[in-house]
Each structure stands twice: as structure tokens, then as C-alpha cells.
């Protein structure tokens, strides 16, 4: 047992850790309570009040700038002034009126309240759908004639009618303040907000249910560092206990303290309020009361790794005591069961993290894992695997000792225990997985033993890389399996949702409209004296007031009946009894305030997939007797057959989905009575299926042609098929790269922490422990060069990629604007709206308004875009997404910058970025001119798809780049090991020979066959050895007796003259490298020349892969495939030794792709075909082309040597080649080019008979070009 003096010495040496932790916690306390602005409610209110006051002063300064006001009133402002008044910069929504005419506005995101102009001058509190504002009204009389008014809206708290990832509430200017911490109210509280005149605008009310323990990130960092210091102190004290007492005392102390602190952290906010962070959100992950969040799993994994590593540090070399056979066998059985149980336990934990959470581990989609949860999830899995690795190694070492290294007995026992283990899981539905897991556990133990055996035999110098590869490959297999299970579960949910075509968001909006219609008293005026004219007025009123947002997506029919159930001027023959029969017998009420069949006012019924109807009803009371019905109003909404592909609905989507799928990866089809009724995406589904294809079970997964298909029997003779391309290989390679890097980083962090603990946090000691050898330096330089080149390559390529992508998007938007402008001008011209001499034309005043809207909506739907149409004063006239305006997501005014460019600068087109909430997009504007060349309207197309598609393209590129560089990284690691062993081995050999030099024996020379710098060193060494032998012989002949000692001393002195500077030079070289001397380059030149050559060789390989990574083929164009084939084949037709057969087709095959890349593709394939034919053989190369199902297929067949079966699976791999020269990138490039343009490439080959390559590409849709074809 240690003495009190020992304990005092320990505290004296390590007490600074506790003192440092105390100082860090003190600084964190000061940051939280005195530095951070939300350290108290008063600071929060003061910050909000300050931001409000600054903007009030800004408004006042604008009012006082007469020249500026004049510019705004006369619309003579410029771009600089628009930028100055930008609301994203100023936080002010500014509006200028001249006699109720809005002459200036600086935003299109909010409307001025209609009652604002009737208010007197002053400051007001405003609350609406968009949040809470201060409204400032200023009368600009005096210098200006007429009634001039300035209205400014200063947002205090901005919100939306619903929230999702794009629409999120926030306090203006307070991005770190949680939106649910305070609410704004007019009821007095302790936290008032004042306007500039000192009057109370509103009050802030703190929510008792909200999280109030806000902490600055600096404070959290200080607290984490403090507890790391405490942890290091506890670890040192546990080691102190083990050294001065029994070893298990230190282990028990550490486990007890860690468990006690962890239990306290579950019961109380200890060591700080960390559960406010999103990592500890149970909605992200929770599986039990112990593992109730991702953060808890991370903390528990860190603590478990800590305890296991401490245990191994104390018992790593411990040997088991002598035991009798019964004890030995019992402990061996226990260790075997423990190994299998650990494999099952940690596998179930990883399964829970993957399947039972909202954390994405799908590495095939970069943006799905580009978040904190996925990063922490991978780190947590890495820690879990390390826990398993250290524990399994411990139990395996015990097993090896118990079996006295007799591995046959050991594996026999493991197999027997595994069979018993399986017996306990016989009723488990996942018995197949349990069997594979048991076999893997035995294989894993065998690999651990094999690595240890190789280390003993010195086949490997360091087992770390071998362990890392074993863990990486094993974890990759587990993650792929569980990812696949999760994806299948999500696909089942997708199939279930596809079986029900109705949209919850649409039903929500329709329910709201139905409630409003029930309260509308204007409708009943028609039933007092119904006429065709009043019926037309009623229909227009309903369409414009309530259904404007749905005209683009639904066909809307209005039915009216009198009290006697007779139709009132209906355009449809549907009778009252037929409608009532549908509502009572076929329809179901939509959930709302009234859900019974009798009291419901909104119904849904389905006649087939994507053929469903919404019915609404309003009973009109009699004027004389309101209790009796005076008429009936029904409205029917039927979805249009063409689906609008615009992305505006993203703003209206909900975030409450329990699964998130990238629909671009999926294709699906719906069959009714075995006939295809609907399909999505480009998978070639059959138009009908036979009864034999129908699955026997409700769900059935099938793998066909590289695709995984889910067949779901939804009932009512409806079958859903959801197809997804298999990407297992890409997922495997990417996961290997990710996990290997994570394991490497975790090992590096542990090494750094270990050295800090070992050095006692003292820099001098740390420098001694961190001495870097020449071997480590060379390895670091090689790996760093590869990683750095990968980073530079990725950044530069992605930057160029994004730039080109944005250019392509702008070109596409310009094309859409051009086509739509012509179509809409034709529609407007048909209705005499482009020949009106008036300067302002209003669609709402046109008697053809519903017809015009229907026609424009149809055009927009055909082109798959959203359309907004503004008059020349910037007022919205028509929108295919009217709901955005109805819900105040957009104002009724045009974007002010676009209005300035088109109306005041007379630009013919303007494209710029815009945003609604956090959804950013490109938006294009063009003027619509009448026959006299005068502007009548402004057309706007918001191009929402750009950012999402860009993310998808970058994700695909990054996956390819990561996969390529994963091989590069592994190759560089192997080369680094080889080169360092080669270079340092040479120095080691020379050092050993120098150490063995003796004067009294024949010294061995070094054999070195290369004429390099090391060879020069060896040459001088051998010369010295030969001189030594000659001198010794001369000494023996001239001095035999008395002069022997003197002559020997002289000869020895002469010999040492060249040896000493050689030794000193080597020592100086080592010291110069270690101390980074300024002349280190000169001293190491001779020894690093070979290293430079190897690095240059690596650079050449990296250059080849760089070229492979940059074949993205961004230049998309329409061209004839026939011309490309004719051009390529012409190059090879004059070959005298081979026969090229090609019949040019009569039909033209137009495709959309990069013409240069396609030329390179067929050039490469033909060159491979010619090279595959032996010199002694007459070559016959056949090229054929055919089309089917909207695709064209090119066949290139040769009679060469063919491809052996064992090499077929690797033929498209980078760096693989069957030839004696070349980089092996040709076919890999071909595959990348074909897949880049949504095609596929495959081959058929027989050894010594020949090979046939097939290239399949989609044909271009020529209807999209409207006859604007390139010259044939």
C-alpha cells in the first residue's frame, strides 16, 4: 500500500491538471454568465432592442435624405441604391407610395398590409402570417406634391405558416437564439420592447417549457477541456494505485469513478447542460434508457474504450495462473462464449445505430452524410469496433494461453460453442445472419492469430496496418448489410405510400379552404336569383378566391343545385343523386373537425391509381328559413394527367417524414389488373405482367439485371414495383475509404493523448517521446503527397464543375424563358391582350381570365416549370403556384432588382439568384411585348431544381473521386512501407558492417549493384576495407617483433582517418534531419535521389488518375451518332492486316452527350479490338448498330484472344490491364463516359475465340427541340 508521502509526491507532480481544470471551468462560467449575450434575459432583450433601434434610426436617416426619396418616388434610382436598401443587409422592408401608387419596394417577400395607408403617421406593432414586425409610417409631405408615404416593416420575429428545413422561424439578427425560447405578445410581461419614441411596442414572454440553458460554444469547449484534464488525472491516479498497490485496485477505482460520474450525468445536468445539443435528441436516435441518444452512445463508447485500454495497459503481459483441467476447460468455454457474445452485442448495437435512427450511413450519396449526425455516427461506430477489437484480443490471448498455442483444439472448441450458440437462436427469424456472424467470428479469431504468427516470424514489422484492414473490411461488410436492410424497409414504406396517391399537404390546404367556404356569405347570393350570368360570376369568384392555387394541378368543376335538387346551369350532367351516392357509398371523409360521413364537408374517393377526386359540399340556407336548405354547392377537384415537375412544392413540404429517400435513385411502376397504369423514372418496366410474375407474398425482393426490385401487393388488384440500381461495389469501396480513415484518425488521436499522459503534459518530455525517425518521415511525405494532391485535385475540379454547371443551368433557364415567352405571347395575343393600347393590362379584369389561366398553366405544366406573370407595374397577375402568394411566402410585387433591370434598364432578360426562406434558386425574367414593341407583362420562371441537381452531380463526382483515391491511398501506403524499408535498410546494412570492422580479421565488403548515391557510399566503404587489408599485410611483413605494437598503432591511426569523418558524416546527416538543419537538402541529396524518383513515379500515376477523374463530360450537345462512328471507323479501315466490317445504317441516331467523349469512347474500343488480335492471325472486326425501346446499341466484335474467365470481373477496374504496357485506364474511362450519359457498357468473351463489347445509349427526345435541329 502506498504511503502518505507517496501520495503527496503524486499530487505535487500531477496536481497542475486539477488546477488547470479549475481555471478552465472558471473561464467557462465567466463566458456563460458575463460574456455571452444570452447569459441573461436582460441581455437578450437588450440585444433585440438594440437591433430594432439601429433599424429605426436607419429608417429616420432615409426619410431625411430628400434626394434619395426623390429618386424612389420618381423611380430614378440605380443599382447602387438598391444594394444599399437590400433588406437582407438592412433588415428593413421598405415601401414608398405616391397617392396610393406603390413607386418603390425593396422586397418581394412580404406585402404591406392593406390598412397601413389609412394609419396616421407613427410606429405600430404588426402581427401576421409572416411574424411580428414594427410598422413605421412616415408622411413625406412638404417638398413633394400630393400624398407621399413611406412605410417600413422592421421584422422582430419572422415565421411562416408552416415549418420545414426551408421555412424556419427566427428572431431577426439573433441567429444563435432558439426561436422557441421567447414568444412575442401584447400582454404585459417583464420584458417590454420599445419603439424610438419610448412607447411599448410589444412584450417578450419566456417559455417555461423551452430549453433555457444556453451555452456559448467557447464555454462548451472550455468545459470539455477541463474534464479531459480531470480524466487524465484520474487515469494517472489509477496507474499510481496499480503501481503502489495491487494492480486490480487501480482498475476498480477507475471503473467505480467512471460509473459514478456517468450515473450522475444521467440524473442531473452534469458536468454541464449538454443535453440541449442536437446530438442528444432522442428523435435522432434512442434505443433504451441508457442509450437514449447518439451523444450518449458516443460518450459511453469513449468511456468503455478508456477502461479497456487501461485494463490492457495493466494486464497486457499478464499470464494466467496454473489451473487444473476442469478450471482450464471451464475458463476456455467462458472465453469462447464471451467472444461470440461480444460479436453479437456489438453487431446489434451497430444495427440499432443504422436501422433504428435517422442517421444516414449511405455513402453513395455524399450530401446525405454531409452532416454532424453522420460524422458522429461513423466515429461512434469506429469506437464501438475498437472496443470489440481490444476486448476480443484480450479473450483470444486468454484462449491461446489456455490451449497452450494448440490452435486446432482452440478452433474446434470455438466451432462447438458456435453450434450451441446457434441452437439458442433457432427460432430467431434472422438465423441466417446469426450463422454468418458466428462463422465470421471464428474467421476473425483465425486472422488475429495469423497476424500474430506473421509478426513472430517477422513477415511483417508492424501489425497495425493489418489490424486496421481487418477491422475496416469487417465493419464495411456489417454496414453494407444493415444499410441494405434499412433501405429495404424504407422502400417498403415508399411502396405503401405509392399505393395511396393522395397528398396530405393538399388535403391540409383543401380542408382550410373548405372551412372558409362554409363561412362565406357571398356564395348564397347566387341562389337567390340564379341566372347563367350570375353562375359565371360565382364560378370565377370561387376559382380566383379559393382555388387559384390548385388550377395548375387539378381540373375543377363547380356544381349548383336548388332546394329541389335540380341543377342550376351546370356544364356537367352529373346529378345531385349521383353526387350524393358517391359521397355516401364510395367516398371517405377527410380528417378534420368533422369526420363522420353525415357531417363531413370534404371527401376523397378513388376510381383508379392517380385517378382520384376531392369533393366539397356547402348547403345554402334559405333567407326566410335558415334552418331549411335553399340550395346545394358542390366542387370537385380531379388531378390533371400531366404532372408538374417544378420544385416549388419543396417550400410546402413537411419534415415529418420518418424516412427520407432520394427519389432520383428509384424507379417505380403501378399495375392494376396486371396492366401498367403509371411509372416514374427511366427503368424499362413491362406494359403488362403475367400471372406467373405476381409474387406469392405481400412483399418480395428480386434482383434482375443489376437492379433490386420490390414487388408489393397493395390489394384491390394493385401491384407496386419499386426498382433501384445495385451499387454495392461503389458502396463497398467508399465505405472502406471512409472507415479506414476514421480508424486511422481515432488511432492517431489516441496516440497523441497517450503521449500527453505519458509525458505528464510537459513539453520537454513530449518532444523526447515524439522523435520522428527517417522511416516515419519518408512514409509521412509519401502519404501526405497523395492526400494533398487528392485535396487539391478535388477542390479545383469541383470548383470548375460548379462553375460549368451554373453556366449550363443559366443556359437551360434562358432556353426555357425563350420557349415559354413565345408560347405565352401566343396565348395572350389570342385573347387580344397584346393589342391593347393601354399601358397597364390586368388579367383579372379580362372576361377570358379562367381560360387564359388554364392555357398558361397547361404550357407551364408541359415544360415542367413554375410561371409567374406580372404587369408592367410589378403586380402579380398569374402564378402556377398561387399558394405561395396566398400564404405570404411571396408578396404580390415583382422582385425589385429584376424590376429595376427590366423596367428601368430595359434589359431583354435578367437572371439572378433569389431565395425564399432557406431555399435558394435561380430566377429568370423577360418582358412580354405587344405588336408595337411595348412592354405589357413580365414573365418570371423560378428555376428551383438547380441546387438539388448540382448537389446530386457533385455527390456522384465526389463518390467517384473518393473511390479512385481510396486505391491511391492504399497504394501509397504500401509503397511508403516498401520504400522506407528499402532506403533505411541500406543505411542499416552499412551501419552493421561498420560496427563489425576488426583489424585482426578479414572484413567483409558490401555487395551493391546499383550506381546511385548509396552505391557511392558503399564504394568508399569497400575501398576503405581494401585499404585496411593492404595496410595490415604491409605491417605484418615489415614489423614482426619489436615494432609490431608501434606499427599496429600507426596503421590503426591511418585506418581511422577515413572512418571517423564517414561516421561523423552519417551522424551529422541523422542530426541534421532530426533538427531540420538549413543545409539538410544538400546533405540528404545523395540518399534521397531514389526517393525522388519513386515520388515522381507516383506523380505520374496520380496524373493518369487525375485525367480519369476529370472525364465528367459537361459539354452536352445534340449530334448524330452515325457521324461519330463513320469518323472513327474511317481511321481504321485502311489497315492491311485486318478486316473491318461496318454497314452504315440508313436511319439517323440522334443522341445528347459530349461528342468529344463519345468519339474517345469508340476510338478506345476499336483500338482495343485491334490490339487484342495476335500478330500471326488475320483480324476481323465487326461493328453494328441497332435501336430498341428509345435506346441505341453499338456492337464491336473481334476475333482476338478473348478474356480469361478469372479476369472478366476486373476488366473495368482502374489500373487493370491485360496488356504488357499501358495504365489500364482505357476501359475504365469508357465505362465512366457511358454511365455519365445514362448508358451502359458490357461485354461477352470466350477465351481464344474473341470478345464483343456492347455500348447502349439513350436516344434524344427530338420533340423537345421543336424542329430546331442541328444541320444533318
TrEMBL record:
The lineage of its organism: Bacteria, Pseudomonadati, Bacteroidota, Chitinophagia, Chitinophagales. It catalyses: ATP + protein L-histidine = ADP + protein N-phospho-L-histidine. Pfam families: HATPase_c, HisKA. The keyword Cytoplasm does not apply. One of its GO terms (cellular component) is plasma membrane. It comes from Thermoflavifilum thermophilum. Gene3D superfamilies: 1.10.287.130, 6.10.340.10, Histidine kinase-like ATPase, C-terminal domain (3.30.565.10). Keywords: ATP-binding, Cell membrane, Kinase, Membrane, Nucleotide-binding, Phosphoprotein, Transferase, Transmembrane, Transmembrane helix, Two-component regulatory system. Residues 1050-1261 form the Histidine kinase domain. It is a multi-pass membrane protein. It is found in: Cell membrane. The keyword Membrane applies. This is histidine kinase. Residues 981-1033 form the HAMP domain. Its EC number is 2.7.13.3. GO terms for molecular function: ATP binding; phosphorelay sensor kinase activity. The chain crosses the membrane at residues 15-35, 220-242, 248-268, 289-309, 329-350, 371-391, 411-428, 435-455, 461-482, 732-757, 777-802, 957-979.
Amino acid at each position: 500500500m502506498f504511503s502518505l508521502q507517496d501520495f503527496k509526491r503524486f499530487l505535487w507532480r500531477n496536481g497542475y491538471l486539477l488546477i488547470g481544470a479549475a481555471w478552465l471551468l472558471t473561464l467557462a462560467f465567466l463566458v456563460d454568465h458575463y460574456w455571452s449575450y444570452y447569459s441573461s434575459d436582460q441581455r437578450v432583450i437588450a440585444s433585440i432592442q438594440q437591433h430594432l433601434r439601429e433599424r429605426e434610426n436607419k429608417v429616420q436617416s432615409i426619410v431625411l435624405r430628400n434626394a434619395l426619396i426623390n429618386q424612389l418616388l420618381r423611380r430614378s434610382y440605380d443599382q447602387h441604391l438598391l444594394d444599399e436598401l437590400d433588406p437582407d443587409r438592412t433588415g428593413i422592408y421598405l415601401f414608398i407610395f405616391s397617392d396610393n401608387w406603390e413607386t418603390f419596394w425593396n422586397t418581394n417577400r412580404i406585402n404591406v398590409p392593406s390598412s397601413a395607408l389609412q394609419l396616421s403617421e407613427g410606429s405600430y406593432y404588426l402581427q401576421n402570417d409572416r411574424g411580428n414586425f414594427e410598422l413605421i409610417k412616415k408622411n413625406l409631405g412638404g417638398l413633394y406634391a400630393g400624398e407621399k408615404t413611406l412605410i417600413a416593416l422592421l421584422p422582430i420575429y419572422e415565421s411562416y405558416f408552416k415549418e420545414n428545413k426551408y421555412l424556419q422561424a427566427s428572431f431577426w439578427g439573433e441567429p444563435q437564439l432558439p426561436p422557441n425560447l421567447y414568444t412575442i405578445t401584447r400582454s404585459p410581461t417583464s420584458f417590454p420592447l420599445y419603439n424610438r419614441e419610448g412607447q411599448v411596442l410589444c412584450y417578450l414572454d419566456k417559455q417555461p417549457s423551452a430549453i433555457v440553458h444556453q451555452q456559448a460554444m467557447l464555454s462548451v469547449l472550455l468545459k470539455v477541456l477541463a474534464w479531459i484534464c480531470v480524466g487524465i488525472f484520474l487515469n494517472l491516479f489509477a496507474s499510481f494505485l496499480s503501481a503502489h498497490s495491487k494492480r486490480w485496485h487501480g482498475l476498480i477505482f477507475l471503473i467505480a469513478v467512471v460509473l459514478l460520474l456517468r450515473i450522475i450525468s444521467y440524473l442531473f445536468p452534469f458536468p454541464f447542460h449538454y443535453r440541449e445539443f442536437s446530438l442528444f435528441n432522442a428523435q435522432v436516435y434512442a434505443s433504451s434508457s441508457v442509450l437514449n441518444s447518439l451523444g450518449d452512445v458516443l460518450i459511453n463508447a469513449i468511456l468503455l474504450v478508456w477502461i479497456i485500454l487501461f485494463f490492457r495497459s495493466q494486464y497486457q503481459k499478464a499470464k494466467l495462473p496454473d489451473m487444473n483441467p476442469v478450471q482450464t476447460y471451464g475458463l476456455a468455454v467462458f472465453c469462447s462464449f464471451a467472444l461470440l457474445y461480444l460479436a453479437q452485442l456489438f453487431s446489434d448495437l451497430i444495427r440499432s445505430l443504422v436501422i433504428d435512427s435517422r442517421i444516414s450511413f449511405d455513402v453513395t450519396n455524399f450530401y446525405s452524410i454531409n452532416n454532424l449526425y453522420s460524422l458522429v455516427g461513423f466515429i461512434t461506430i469506429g469506437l464501438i469496433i475498437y472496443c470489440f477489437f481490444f476486448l476480443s484480443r484480450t479473450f483470444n490471448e486468454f484462449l491461446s494461453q489456455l490451449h497452450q498455442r494448440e490452435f486446432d483444439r482452440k478452433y474446434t472448441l470455438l466451432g462447438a460453442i458456435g453450434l450451441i450458440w446457434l441452437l439458442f437462436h433457432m427460432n430467431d427469424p434472422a438465423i441466417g445472419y446469426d450463422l454468418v456472424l458466428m462463422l465470421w467470428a471464428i474467421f476473425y479469431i483465425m486472422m488475429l492469430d495469423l497476424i500474430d504468427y506473421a509478426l513472430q516470424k517477422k513477415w511483417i514489422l508492424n501489425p497495425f496496418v493489418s489490424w486496421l484492414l481487418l477491422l475496416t473490411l469487417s465493419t464495411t461488410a456489417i454496414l453494407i448489410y444493415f444499410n441494405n436492410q434499412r433501405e429495404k424497409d424504407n422502400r417498403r414504406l415508399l411502396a405503401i405510400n405509392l399505393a395511396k396517391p393522395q397528398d396530405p399537404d393538399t388535403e391540409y390546404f383543401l380542408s382550410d379552404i373548405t372551412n372558409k367556404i362554409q363561412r362565406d356569405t357571398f356564395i348564397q347570393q347566387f341562389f337567390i336569383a340564379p341566372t347563367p350570368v350570375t353562375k359565371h360570376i360565382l364560378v370565377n369568384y370561387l376559382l380566383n378566391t379559393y382555388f387559384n392555387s390548385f388550377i395548375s394541378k387539378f381540373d375543377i368543376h363547380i356544381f349548383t343545385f336548388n332546394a329541389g335538387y335540380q341543377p342550376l346551369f351546370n356544364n356537367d350532367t352529373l346529378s345531385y343523386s349521383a353526387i350524393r351516392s358517391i359521397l355516401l357509398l364510395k367516398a371517405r371523409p377527410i380528417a378534420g373537425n368533422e369526420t363522420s360521413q353525415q357531417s363531413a364537408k370534404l371527401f376523397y374517393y378513388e376510381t383508379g391509381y392517380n385517378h382520384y377526386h376531392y369533393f366539397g359540399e356547402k348547403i345554402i340556407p334559405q333567407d326566410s328559413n335558415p334552418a331549411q336548405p335553399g340550395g346545394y354547392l358542390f366542387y370537385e377537384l380531379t388531378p390533371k394527367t400531366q404532372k408538374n415537375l417544378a420544385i416549388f412544392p419543396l417550400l410546402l413540404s413537411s419534415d415529418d417524414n420518418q424516412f427520407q429517400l432520394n427519389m432520383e435513385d428509384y424507379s417505380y411502376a403501378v399495375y392494376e389488373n396486371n396492366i401498367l397504369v403509371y411509372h416514374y423514372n427511366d427503368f424499362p418496366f413491362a406494359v403488362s405482367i403475367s400471372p406467373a410474375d405476381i409474387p406469392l407474398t405481400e412483399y418480395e425482393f428480386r434482383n434482375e439485371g443489376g437492379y433490386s426490385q420490390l414487388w408489393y401487393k397493395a390489394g384491390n388488384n394493385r401491384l407496386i414495383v419499386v426498382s433501384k440500381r445495385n451499387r454495392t461495389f461503389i458502396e463497398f469501396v467508399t465505405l472502406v475509404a471512409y472507415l479506414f480513415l476514421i480508424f486511422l484518425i481515432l488511432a492517431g488521436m489516441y496516440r497523441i493523448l497517450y503521449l500527453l499522459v505519458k509525458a505528464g503534459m510537459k513539453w520537454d518530455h513530449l518532444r523526447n517521446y515524439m522523435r520522428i525517425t527517417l522511416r516515419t518521415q519518408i512514409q509521412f511525405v509519401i502519404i501526405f503527397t497523395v492526400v494533398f494532391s487528392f485535396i487539391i485535385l478535388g477542390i479545383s475540379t469541383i470548383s470548375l464543375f460548379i462553375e460549368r454547371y451554373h453556366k449550363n443551368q443559366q443556359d437551360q433557364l434562358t432556353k426555357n424563358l425563350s420557349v415559354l415567352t413565345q408560347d405565352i405571347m401566343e396565348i395572350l395575343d389570342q385573347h387580344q391582350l397584346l393589342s391593347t393600347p393601354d399601358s397597364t393590362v390586368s388579367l383579372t379584369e379580362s372576361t377570358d381570365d379562367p381560360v387564359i389561366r388554364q392555357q398558361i398553366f397547361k404550357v407551364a405544366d408541359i415544360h415542367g416549370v413554375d410561371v409567374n406573370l406580372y404587369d408592367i407595374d410589378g403586380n402579380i397577375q398569374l402564378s402556377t403556384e398561387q399558394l405561395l402568394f396566398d400564404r405570404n411566402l411571396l408578396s404580390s410585387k415583382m422582385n425589385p432588382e429584376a424590376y429595376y433591370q427590366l423596367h428601368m434598364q430595359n434589359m431583354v432578360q435578367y437572371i439572378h439568384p433569389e431565395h425564399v426562406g432557406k431555399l435558394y434558386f435561380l430566377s429568370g425574367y423577360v418582358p412580354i411585348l405587344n405588336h408595337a414593341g411595348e412592354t405589357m407583362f413580365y414573365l418570371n420562371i423560378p428555376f428551383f431544381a438547380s441546387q438539388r441537381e448540382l448537389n446530386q452531380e457533385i455527390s456522384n463526382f465526389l463518390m467517384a473521386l473518393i473511390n479512385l483515391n481510396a486505391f491511391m491511398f492504399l497504394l501509397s501506403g504500401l509503397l511508403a512501407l516498401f520504400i522506407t524499408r528499402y532506403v533505411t535498410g541500406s543505411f542499416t546494412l552499412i551501419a552493421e558492417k561498420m560496427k563489425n570492422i576488426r583489424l585482426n580479421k578479414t572484413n567483409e565488403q558490401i555487395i551493391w549493384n546499383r550506381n546511385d548515391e548509396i552505391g557511392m557510399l558503399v564504394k568508399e566503404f569497400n575501398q576503405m576495407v581494401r585499404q585496411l587489408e593492404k595496410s595490415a599485410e604491409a605491417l605484418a611483413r615489415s614489423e614482426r617483433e619489436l615494432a609490431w605494437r608501434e606499427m599496429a598503432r600507426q596503421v590503426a591511426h591511418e585506418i581511422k582517418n577515413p572512418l571517423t569523418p564517414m561516421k561523423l558524416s552519417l551522424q551529422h546527416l541523422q542530426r541534421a534531419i532530426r533538427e531540420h538543419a538549413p543545409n539538410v537538402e544538400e546533405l540528404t541529396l545523395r540518399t534521397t535521389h531514389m526517393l525522388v524518383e519513386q515520388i515522381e513515379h507516383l506523380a505520374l500515376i496520380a496524373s493518369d488518375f487525375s485525367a480519369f477523374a476529370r472525364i465528367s463530360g459537361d459539354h452536352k450537345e445534340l449530334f448524330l451518332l452515325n457521324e461519330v462512328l463513320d469518323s472513327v471507323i474511317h481511321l481504321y479501315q485502311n489497315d492491311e492486316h485486318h478486316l473491318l466490317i461496318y454497314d452504315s445504317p440508313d436511319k439517323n441516331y440522334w443522341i445528347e452527350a459530349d461528342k468529344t467523349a463519345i468519339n474517345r469512347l469508340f476510338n478506345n474500343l476499336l483500338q482495343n479490338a485491334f490490339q487484342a488480335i495476335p500478330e500471326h492471325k488475320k483480324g476481323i472486326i465487326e461493328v453494328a448498330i441497332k435501336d430498341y425501346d428509345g435506346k441505341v446499341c453499338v456492337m464491336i466484335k473481334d476475333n482476338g484472344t478473348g478474356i480469361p474467365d478469372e479476369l472478366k470481373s476486373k476488366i473495368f477496374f482502374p489500373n487493370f490491364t491485360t496488356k504488357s504496357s499501358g495504365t489500364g485506364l482505357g476501359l475504365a474511362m469508357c465505362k465512366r463516359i457511358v454511365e455519365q450519359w445514362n448508358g451502359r457498357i458490357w461485354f461477352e468473351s470466350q477465351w481464344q475465340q474473341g470478345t464483343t463489347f456492347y455500348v447502349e445509349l439513350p436516344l434524344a427526345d427530338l420533340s423537345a427541340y421543336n424542329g430546331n435541329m442541328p444541320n444533318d
